Amino acid sequence: MIGETRIAAGRSREIPFPLLLAGLALAGLIAAGLGLVADRISATALAGFLTLLSEDRETALAILTEVRLPRIVLGAIVGGTLGLSGAALQGWLRNPLAEPGLIGASAAAALGAVIAFYFGLGSLSQFALPAGGVIGAMAGLGVLLLLVGRDPSVLTVILAGVAVTAFAGALTQLALNLAPSPYATLEVITWLMGSLANRSFEHVWLALPMTVVGWVLLAGTGRALDALTVGEDAARSMGVNLTRLRWRIVFGVGLSVGAAVSVSGIIGFVGLVIPHLLRPLVGYMPSRLLPASALGGAALVLYADVLVRYLSPGQELKLGVVTALIGAPFFLLLLMEVRRRGQ
Fold this sequence. Notes:
It is globular, with a radius of gyration of 21 Å. The two termini are 16 Å apart. The chain contains 15 helices and no strands. Helix 2 (17-37) runs parallel beside helix 14, helix 5 (105-118) packs across helix 6 (128-148) and helix 5 runs parallel beside helix 7. By secondary structure, the chain is mostly helical.
């Protein structure tokens, strides 16, 4: 079987799984440590922070706990969500180009946030924007469920996700086009680029409940996805309920990605890149790829955020722009590889 061949090939190249997870966790911790130290990672910046810590400990600790730590925690949550969702979607759809925006969660969450901007709800509360994103993601998921029916095929879910994404994107563009103020338009566009700047622990608590529910749903699909690698008929013979698997993945991706996008904006390509980078190391067993992709996604976003702060300490680059610059060439290389293999 093709799936068995891929699993065997992956096992021949994989490194010890606990060692890989430990390495990814260590990489994420190093990135988090770099993010805590200074806005610009340099000897001068480090010396300045250490001086502040010795002279005004209260201010230094406030900077760490109220400014930098929430940004790092949120980056780990967002990156872990995108990596885990990408691995789950690629395993379920058996499509190397699948990524979390495929079912419309990201676009619908962005639309909800834009609507909050458009009607001026952001001036009423700093949490109007993320709340709008969460509501938008849930609304998009509801539309997706109405479109696909009770027992959809994989192709039906993909087409419905494309439709939801296209419609949400069109409505977002319409809102931008009709925005009463150019400043509001600029603010929306800036948010859509994706960033972790100026986030607090309130944003973390807002996104975390739905994100954790999504994680739990996706983490429990590993064995079913392992069985699915050898085909749907074989998976059914192993006792896998494919309908239940579909809904677990759709709900898990919709809840977790929608919540993440609602507080960070759109950060693309993480869910596409990370599973492909780790699959040769983990093997073609989705049950192993899921936790590895979660850790890898968190590490990638944290390192990208450090890179953003290092490259532009003044007018900060947007995180979504950096991940797109990393992911777009990788996506093109992946397409060329798929074409070369004639798939």
